[in-house]
Amino acid sequence: MTDTRTRCDRTPAWGLLQDHYERMGRGFDLRGAFASDAQRFARFSQQAPHVFADLSKNLIDARAEELLLQLARESGLEAYRDAMFAGEAINNTEERAVMHWLLRTPRDAQTPNATVAAGLQEVHGTLDTMLALAERVRADDAITDIVNIGIGGSDLGPSVVVKALEDLRHPGKRLHFISNVDGMELGTMLRQLRPENTLFLIASKTFTTAETMTNAHAARRWFVEHGGSDDRAAPLSLSRHFYALTTNIEAARTFGIDTTLGFWDWVGGRYSLWSAIGLPIAIAIGAERFRALLAGAHAMDEHFRSAPLAQNLPVRLGLLDVWYRNFHGFTSRSVAPYSHGLRRLPAYLQQLEMESNGKGVDARGETLPFATSPVIWGEPGTNGQHAFFQMIHQGPDIVPVEFIALREAGRDLADQHPRLLANALAQAKALMLGRANDDGHKRFTGNRPSTFLVLERLDPASLGALVALYEHRVFVSGAVWGINSFDQWGVELGKVLAKDLEPRLASGATEGMDASTAGLVAHLRAG
Ligand code: F6P
């Protein structure tokens, strides 16, 4: 496809934003902004499907937002978004369409063309098969432990969702997520399992990822050593206890797996929890709730696709990210879910945002003269308050914080929920207002930005919408930056070098290596 975008730094809005930053942005004061505008909360808050966002405690005024919207228009954001929703190959370096949104599109939805229509039929065929399979596993009392072996997008998405929806998990099914090639992770888990009660899901888009394949082979060895068999007729057969979730069905079959669920190259790994990669979620919460997860995400897709830019939450958040990264120069953003269920969300968002937008060249391969993805990091509240919030309140770096709160309490100890919410509100307020004090140690300068997202409750639909919101927000900043958010060439080199280094660790051969790596190889072999 021809990329019709204009890179942000080549638009008229870019220069206007620079001027505006110098005149108003650099010295912007939140307290003054609230004092002079009684409508600030209303102006800078936004209701989107399942997610309410208060953006008012950000270092932004109406003019900055206007210019950012101009930037989005001049960059060609809308046409680029529409190209994604038309199934065009916007992942240009891999010549692939980007259609994770199709995975949550209703069966009878209008489609823009025959390719998307055909994709939608396939999506629903596989979804029906997957959900029927999930229900069979849920009904099978012999299976008590489901072990998902996968890494990156084949681990983080399902693991975040399963943890978040713990209240809704089938009580007879324990879900485990194994990702690290460190044998301690799988080894510790296997000691707690019995093969006759265990189902392994080998989750890998490519079915070639070294960590996943290593763990999958180790699991199979353990299974056979504990009475399992390759023979399909055997009572404890590999065929019954191993499923594969992959686009590479052939490789899964070669591994010896009969039950395979497929998906398509137009689903990026970090966007894949809605596909067959979501099987552990469906086993945990059941078919109907999995459909509710998809429906929540779809509602956000529709919002992103059709809401005017000025009332479009992914657009507003994505543009705020550009404002902070390229004009304020903030290098990171902290995510603070005030929810135990969402404790792994920061890890998930790290992959989503940094693997998508951590790029140094534009989609044409030209080196970028400006910064892209911020560092995304965080921990759930209130834990983070007793760890790194000191730095966010008083350190010299400004770190925008994203609070995520749930209006309704979860199932357990609901009486503690008001205390949790009060803490989230207090942190956001303290960051903004600060506190004067003659003693510098006790002084809070304030004027520190935050965004506050609220979900009604942690249910499948809200969670689906929240994740889709983040996906589209990453799309927006990536689109404006002119990059391809859907490839990840930066992970390749390390994979190649690890292949070379493993035999050298065994043999000690260090010729041709840099002195540091050679020294470390020798040190690791010693003793
Ligand atoms: O190495 C990075 C990566 O390719 C991610 O993009 C992906 O989510 C992960 O590895 C796992 O890949 P796969 O699902 O093919 O095993």
Automatic annotation (TrEMBL):
Lineage top rank: taxon: Bacteria
UniProt xrefs under Gene3D superfamilies: 1.10.1390.10, Glucose-6-phosphate isomerase like protein, domain 1
Gene Ontology MF annotations: glucose-6-phosphate isomerase activity
Endpoints of the signal sequence: none
Pathway: Carbohydrate biosynthesis; gluconeogenesis; Carbohydrate degradation; glycolysis; D-glyceraldehyde 3-phosphate and glycerone phosphate from D-glucose: step 2/4
InterPro entries per the UniProt record, alphabetical: G6P_Isomerase, G6P_Isomerase_C, Phosphoglucose_isomerase_CS, SIS_dom_sf, SIS_PGI_1, SIS_PGI_2
Catalytic residues as annotated in Swiss-Prot or TrEMBL: 355 (proton donor), 386, 495
Class of this enzyme: isomerase
SUPFAM superfamilies attached to this UniProt entry: SIS domain (SSF53697)
Location of this chain's protein in the cell: Cytoplasm
Reactions catalysed according to its record: alpha-D-glucose 6-phosphate = beta-D-fructose 6-phosphate
EC annotation from Swiss-Prot or TrEMBL: 5.3.1.9
Pfam families xrefs: PGI
Coiled-coil residue spans: none
Keyword field: Cytoplasm, Gluconeogenesis, Glycolysis, Isomerase
Family named by the database record: Belongs to the GPI family.
HAMAP family: G6P_isomerase
Role noted for this protein: Catalyzes the reversible isomerization of glucose-6-phosphate to fructose-6-phosphate.
Protein name stated in the entry: Glucose-6-phosphate isomerase
The organism of origin for this protein: Paracidovorax wautersii
